[in-house]
C-alpha cells in the first residue's frame, strides 16, 4: 500500500514538474506567433504616437493569453484523446457545422502559408542579389529549393517541426534584441510630443487616438497569433499529461506569452523611440517593413544585413507552425468527406497526400509571385478572429464539457476584443473597396 502511494505521489510530481517537451512547445508557440508580421507592428502600432502603444502594451498579454487558452480548452474538451480541433468541432456542434468550420479553418490558415512561401522566396532572392552581390537565380528553381527544404523538415513529423521551430527561436530573439539595443543611442524625444489623450487627428497620421488604437488591434492580434499550432499543442499535451493537460497547457501558454510580449514590445518601443511619428507615417505609406525603413533612414549597413536574416528566420518559423494548422484543416476536410461516403484513409497516407498538395501549390504560388496575397491574408483575418476569440466563448455557454469555465470576467474581455478585432478588419476591408 505504501509503495502504491509513493508511486502515485511520484506520478503527480512528474506531471506537475516542467519537462523538456514543455520548453520545446513553449518555444514552438512563440515561433509560430512571432513571424514576419512583427516587422510591421512598430509601424502600425507606433504611427499614432506613444499613448496607443502604451495601451496596446497593457492589453497584449491578457488579450492573447486568454484567447489562446480558450481555444486550447476547447480542443481539450473532446471526449477522446487525440481528437484535433476539426473533430472536436464536429463532436460539439454536429456534422454540418463541423464541415463548415473545418473548411473555414483551412481557408483561414492555408492562404497565410502561401503568403509565407512567396515571402521567403522574395527575401532570399533579395539577400542573394543585394547583400551577396550575386545574380538572381531562376525564381522557379529558387522557390522549389526553399520549399523542398521546408517540406523536408515537415516530412520528419510533428516533433521535428516543433523542435526546428524551437531551435530557430534563439537566433531570432537574439537578432531582434540586438537590433533593439543597437537603436538605443538613436532614441529621441520626438515620440513624446504625441503624449496626449486627445481624440483629435494626429498631424502625422490623420487619425485620432481611438481610431489609431482600434485599427491597430487586429495587427497586434495577428502579430501574436499562434492559433494554427494550438490544436496540435493541445492534443500532444493531452496524450502526455492526461487529465492534468489543461493546467499544464495554461502554464506553458503563460510563459510563451510573457516571452512574446517582453521581446516584441521592447523591439517595438525601441523602433518607435528612434523615429518620429512622421517617419513611421512615411514607412506606412511606403508599405515596407520597419527593418527596411530603418536601414534606409540611418544608412546603416548593419541593419541592412540583419534585416533579411531576421526576416528569413521569422518566415521559416511561421511557415512550419502554420503548416501544422493547414495540414490539420486539409486532413479534416478529406476525412469528413470520406466519412460521409462510408470510407476511411490511413493517416500516414493522408499526410503524404497533403504534403504533396502543399508542396506543389506553395511552389506554384511562390513562383508566380502574385500581388493579391496581402488581400487574401486580410480576408482570412475575420475567420481567424472568430475561431480564436468567439467560438471557444460560445462553446463555454453551449457545451456541457466547457461549462466549468463559465462566469469569468476574462470570457467577456475575450469576446469584446474579438468583436473589436473583427470590426476593425471589416472596416479596413471596406476602406479598400470604396
Automatic annotation (TrEMBL):
Organism domain of life: Bacteria
Transmembrane feature ranges: 24-43, 49-67, 100-120, 140-157, 164-184, 213-235, 255-275, 302-326, 347-366, 372-396, 408-430
UniProt keyword terms in alphabetical order: Amino-acid transport, Cell inner membrane, Cell membrane, Membrane, Symport, Transmembrane, Transmembrane helix, Transport
Membrane topology reported for the UniProt record: Multi-pass membrane protein
Gene Ontology CC entries for this record: plasma membrane
A GO molecular-function annotation: amino acid transmembrane transporter activity
Entry annotated with the keyword Mitochondrion: no
Statement: the UniProt record of this protein carries the keyword Cell membrane: yes
Compartments where located: Cell inner membrane
Cited InterPro entries: Amino_acid_transport_2, Hydroxy_aa_transpt
Catalytic activity: L-serine(in) + H(+)(in) = L-serine(out) + H(+)(out)
UniProt name for this protein: Serine transporter
Amino acid at each position: 500500500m505504501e509503495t502504491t502511494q509513493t508511486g502515485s505521489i511520484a506520478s503527480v510530481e512528474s506531471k506537475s514538474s516542467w519537462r523538456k517537451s514543455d520548453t520545446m512547445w513553449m518555444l514552438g508557440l512563440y515561433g509560430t506567433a512571432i513571424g514576419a508580421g512583427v516587422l510591421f507592428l512598430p509601424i502600425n502600432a507606433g504611427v499614432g504616437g506613444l499613448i496607443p502603444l502604451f495601451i496596446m502594451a497593457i492589453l497584449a498579454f491578457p488579450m492573447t493569453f486568454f484567447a489562446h487558452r480558450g481555444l486550447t480548452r476547447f480542443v481539450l474538451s473532446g471526449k477522446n484523446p487525440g481528437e484535433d480541433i476539426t473533430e472536436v468541432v464536429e463532436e460539439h456542434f454536429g456534422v454540418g457545422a463541423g464541415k463548415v468550420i473545418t473548411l473555414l479553418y483551412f481557408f483561414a490558415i492555408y492562404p497565410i502559408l502561401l503568403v509565407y512561401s512567396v515571402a521567403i522566396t522574395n527575401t532570399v532572392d533579395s539577400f542573394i542579389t543585394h547583400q551577396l552581390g550575386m545574380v538572381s537565380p531562376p525564381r522557379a528553381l529558387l522557390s522549389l529549393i526553399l520549399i523542398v527544404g521546408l517540406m523536408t523538415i515537415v516530412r520528419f513529423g510533428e516533433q521535428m517541426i516543433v523542435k526546428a521551430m524551437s531551435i530557430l527561436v534563439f537566433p531570432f530573439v537574439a537578432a531582434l534584441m540586438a537590433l533593439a539595443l543597437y537603436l538605443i543611442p538613436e532614441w529621441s524625444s520626438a515620440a513624446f510630443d504625441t503624449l496626449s489623450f486627445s481624440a483629435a487627428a494626429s498631424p502625422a497620421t490623420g487619425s485620432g487616438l481611438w481610431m489609431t488604437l482600434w485599427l491597430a488591434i487586429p495587427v497586434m492580434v495577428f502579430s501574436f497569433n499562434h492559433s494554427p499550432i494550438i490544436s496540435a499543442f493541445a492534443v500532444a499535451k493531452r496524450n502526455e499529461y492526461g487529465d492534468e493537460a489543461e493546467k499544464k497547457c495554461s502554464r506553458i501558454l503563460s510563459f510563451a506569452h510573457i516571452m512574446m510580449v517582453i521581446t516584441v514590445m521592447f523591439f517595438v518601443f525601441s523602433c518607435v523611440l528612434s523615429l518620429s511619428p512622421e517617419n513611421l507615417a512615411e514607412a506606412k505609406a511606403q508599405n515596407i517593413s520597419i527593418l527596411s525603413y530603418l536601414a534606409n533612414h540611418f544608412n546603416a549597413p548593419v541593419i541592412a544585413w540583419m534585416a533579411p536574416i531576421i526576416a528569413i528566420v521569422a518566415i521559416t518559423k511561421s511557415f512550419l507552425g502554420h503548416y501544422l494548422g493547414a495540414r490539420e484543416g486539409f486532413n479534416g476536410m478529406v476525412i469528413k468527406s470520406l466519412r460521409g461516403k462510408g470510407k476511411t484513409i490511413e493517416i500516414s497516407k493522408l499526410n503524404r497526400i497533403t504534403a504533396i498538395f502543399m508542396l506543389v501549390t506553395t511552389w506554384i504560388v511562390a513562383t508566380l509571385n502574385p500581388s493579391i496575397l496581402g488581400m487574401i491574408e486580410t480576408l482570412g483575418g475575420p475567420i481567424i478572429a472568430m475561431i480564436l476569440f468567439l467560438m471557444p466563448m460560445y462553446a463555454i455557454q453551449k457545451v456541457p464539457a466547457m461549462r466549468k469555465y463559465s462566469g469569468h470576467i476574462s470570457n467577456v474581455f475575450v469576446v469584446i476584443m474579438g468583436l473589436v478585432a473583427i470590426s476593425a478588419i471589416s472596416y479596413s476591408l471596406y476602406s479598400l473597396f470604396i
